[in-house]
Amino acid sequence: MNFLTLLGTAFALAMDAFAVSIAAGVTLKKVSFRQAFRLSWHFGFFQALMPVLGWSTGLTFRSYIERFDHWLAFGLLVFVGGNMIREALKADSERKQPADPTRGGTLVILSVATSIDALAVGLGLSLLKISIWFPACIIGVVAMLFTLIGLYLGRKIRTSAHLSRYAEIVGGLVLIAISLNILHEHGVFG
Description:
Helix content: over 70%
Number of helices: 6
Number of strands: 0
Distance between the termini: 20 Å
Structural class: mainly alpha
Mean pLDDT: 82
Radius of gyration: 16 Å
Largest sheet: none
Number of domains: 1
Shape: globular
Low-confidence stretches: none
């Protein structure tokens, strides 16, 4: 995986965290340094941790599926990307927003929820025999930065629904494009 693909993956994975942090910025209205640090640290940490967990899981059964691993990676990324797009297109009444996303159980739940797609990416990287440590660090750092940017934007604009929706759609489309690139790299298209 080249650096540009890795960066694209990290950006796509950070879109959920970005969208949630915009909503948090709107909800909180005034964001303290402590709140920004807590949210960005947790989102970045979980975004880095989940690919490692997925990668570790993939190591245990990689030898059984090497012949069709690229199809599995393709399917996982399309599934995750499709879910991101589907979530973005839900009506506002179906979308839940926490009262204070920077505290307690809500923070942990949001951290896991915004990074669960990174678990599938880690599994895909394992199947493709790509080392996880550098990608996990990049994914975590990008998520932290996108969270901080999202909080700032949410605080500034107060209309999070449209921007967060577009961010999730773009993230989903990037994951689908990356999945197609995996098939291309494995010679599926010619």
